[in-house]
Specification:
By secondary structure, the protein is of the alpha+beta class. The protein has helices spanning 23-28, 74-88, 140-143, 161-168, 184-187, 205-213; strands at 7-9, 13-19, 44-49, 55-64, 67-73, 94-97, 101-107, 116-119, 126-130, 133-139, 219-226, 237-240, 245-254, 259-266, 274-276, 279-284.
Length: 285
């Protein structure tokens, strides 16, 4: 693989591999997405809820041969593995963190088909495309040329290409500080295509479906700018001028001058002055 013009090694993400004859059946009964849509040419966004409908994790799923690969933050991967493994023992399936695969983000000037997937014919390299970002899964020898920080196009870790693109596209990622705290609708997982309401039962499905069909949502995901250069943790409270909590930070990343964020915000707070960790917060509308 040739050196990309703009790239970043995503060592804060991991791949959870699911193998075995019952992998599809097992995952289909646990996750919010429809596994049938992950067909080797298209990846899917999905989530895994507890019985109260709150998310353990959100992730991208790719199908490679007969395996399913889940891409998610490293701080959540072990938690997801441990929780899914409790139920995997009843199926012919095996779950593990794939230590051989590394993840590379490459910026592209062309916006391609959402969540398209491809695999090179001469190697095991697998690519996931969303927005203007290519996420490449590759083994250590193929990653080696990208490790030099002196190469033109190398992006330092202070700028998180993955997070910035996800915020831009309103794709929510559960982080360690928000495990089992956030509901799919409040952070935009259904809106981003990560919940299928036709597929049938999965863990937490009753709560998620009831909210979709019967609920009157008063909290929605929003994109926001935070006028600070100090990174703010996911799950941090958003306050109004009366210091009353009106929302939460879902994801936050530094763009080189200030913070860009995906937030879960009460609708009534849209016209209010807001702040988080003492920094002014402006909703992008």
């Amino acid at each position: 693989m040739s050196i990309a013009k703009t790239y970043q090694i995503l060592d804060h993400y991991q791949v959870l591999r699911v193998t075995g004859a019952d992998s599809h059946k097992f995952l289909q009964g646990q996750l919010t997405c429809d596994l049938d849509e992950a067909d080797g040419t298209k990846a899917v966004l999905g989530g895994y809820c507890n019985v109260q409908g709150r998310l353990h994790a959100s992730f991208y799923i790719l199908k490679v041969a007969d395996d399913y690969l889940l891409i998610l933050p490293k701080t959540v991967a072990k938690h997801l593995l441990e929780n899914l493994s409790k139920y995997a023992v009843f199926f012919q399936t095996d779950l593990s963190i794939d230590q051989e695969l590394s993840i590379l983000a490459i910026e592209s000037e062309l916006q391609k088909e959402p969540l398209s997937q491809s695999q090179t014919s001469n190697s095991n390299t697998v690519q996931l495309t969303f927005g203007q970002l290519q996420i490449v899964l590759l083994k250590e020898p193929e990653l080696e040329p990208f490790k030099s920080t002196n190469l033109v196009g190398f992006i330092p870790s202070k700028l998180d290409l993955m997070a910035l693109e996800q915020i831009k596209l309103s794709i929510p990622m559960i982080e360690s500080s928000t495990i089992e705290k956030l509901l799919p609708h409040y952070i935009g997982l259904p809106q981003a295509g990560g919940v299928n309401f036709e597929k049938g039962c999965y863990t937490g499905q009753e709560v998620v479906a009831r909210m979709h069909y019967r609920g009157t949502l008063k909290t929605h995901p929003q994109k926001a700018t935070i006028h600070s250069t100090t990174l703010i943790d996911a799950g941090s409270e958003i306050l109004n001028t009366d210091s009353k909590k009106v929302g939460d930070i879902v994801n936050c990343s530094f763009d080189g001058s200030q913070l860009q964020a995906l937030v879960s915000l009460s609708d009534k707070a849209l016209e209010q002055s807001l702040h988080c960790n003492g920094a002014p917060l402006s909703v992008i509308r």
